[in-house]
Amino acid sequence: ELSIIVPILNEEAQLRCLLTDLVRQQDVDFEVILSDGGSVDNSGALVAEYERFCGYPLSRYLSVKGRGRQLNAGIAKARSRWLLLLHVDSRFTDELALRRGLDMMQEFKTKPVAGRFPLRFRHSDGRPPEAGYYYYEWKARLPREECIHGDQGFLLSRETFLRVGPFRENLPVMEDTDFAERLRRIGRWVLLPSEISTSARRFETEGLWQRQLLNAVIMCFRSIGWEDFF
Asked: Could you tell me the pTM of the whole model?
């Protein structure tokens, strides 16, 4: 029913948590494809361990490093008509998140359409998020330009991907935003029923406002077509 593609690179700890979290998903038949950009940690051994008991088909393929390249390579291995492009630090609290998402997407019969999940940030120490995080969470719910990013998960049909894609492989960052905006120009993004959480580790490491400033600069450069600057 569904192929879940996850690009990874030295993400052993996050990968263990994601593979365990996906076991909880109910009423959906899915496979997980890990597109590995050259991990030198124990990701390979971890996948071999989980293959024996996780309960869903799990495979790992080596790819050239780069999120766009890894996503394209993983999608090429997918067996399902429906694709979910997921970050390795993504988690679902709703055990029917994938089922409800697929059911909603299958209702759309016209124009290219893709779904993304409402976003929540997850702190490593479990503390409540600061006010600044709510800005990003609610921004991600808006159907506006530059508001949709890969940490929300992209759920779409293979036909839609072939019409919009592939992901640009010459962008070291923002390949997800580039794809989202290309789809917006010819189709539609919808907000799926269940929430997805993503790790706030980058903000925690770099500082919320420092990272926010850097994101704003990158978005400004992208909006004026300075991709080569990256």
From this structure: 0.90
Q: CA torsion, points 7, 54, 121, 179, in degrees to nearest 10?
A: 30
Distances in whole angstroms, Cα of residue 218 to Cα of each of 57, 89, 113, 191, 198: 37, 22, 27, 25, 20
Rounded CA Rg of the chain: 17
Q: How far is the C-alpha of 160 from the C-alpha of 80, rounded, in Å?
A: 13
Per-residue pLDDT in tens (0 to 9) along the chain, 230 residues = 999 999 999 999 999 999 999 999 999 999 999 999 999 999 999 999 999 999 999 999 999 999 999 999 999 999 999 999 999 999 999 999 999 999 999 999 888 999 999 999 887 776 666 677 788 888 889 888 888 999 999 999 999 999 999 999 988 788 999 999 999 999 999 999 999 999 876 665 655 656 566 666 666 666 666 655 55
